[in-house]
C-alpha cells in the first residue's frame, strides 16, 4: 500500500462521517506521543 487515496474516496469517507451520529478512531501510541502526550512505557516518562 502506497498511502495514496483518490479524492473520490476521501470525499466518500467524509460523507459517511457527516451522516453518522458517532465516530471512533482507533490509533496507536505514535499519534499521542507526537503531540507531546506521554505513553505508558517510555523510559523515564512512562507510567509503568
Plain-language structure description:
This protein has a domain at 24-48. Helix content is 38%, strand content 0%. It has helices at 7-19, 29-33.
Quote the distance from N terminus to C terminus. Answer: 34 Å
Mean pLDDT metric: 84
- pLDDT < 50 runs, ≥5 residues: none
β-strand amount: under 5%
- Form type: elongated
Q: Estimate the helix proportion, in percent.
A: 25-40%
How does the major sheet shape up?
Answer: none
List the total number of helices.
2
Number of strands: 0
Keywords:
48 residues, mainly alpha, 2 helices
Summarize the structure.
The chain has 48 residues and is mostly helical. It has 2 helices and no strands. The N and C termini lie far apart (34 Å).
Give the topology.
Blueprint: H1 7-19, H2 29-33
Amino acid at each position: 500500500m502506497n498511502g495514496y487515496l483518490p479524492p473520490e474516496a476521501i470525499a466518500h469517507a467524509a460523507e459517511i462521517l457527516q451522516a453518522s451520529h458517532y465516530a471512533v478512531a482507533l490509533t496507536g501510541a505514535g499519534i499521542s506521543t507526537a503531540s507531546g502526550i506521554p505513553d505508558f512505557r517510555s523510559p523515564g516518562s512512562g507510567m509503568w
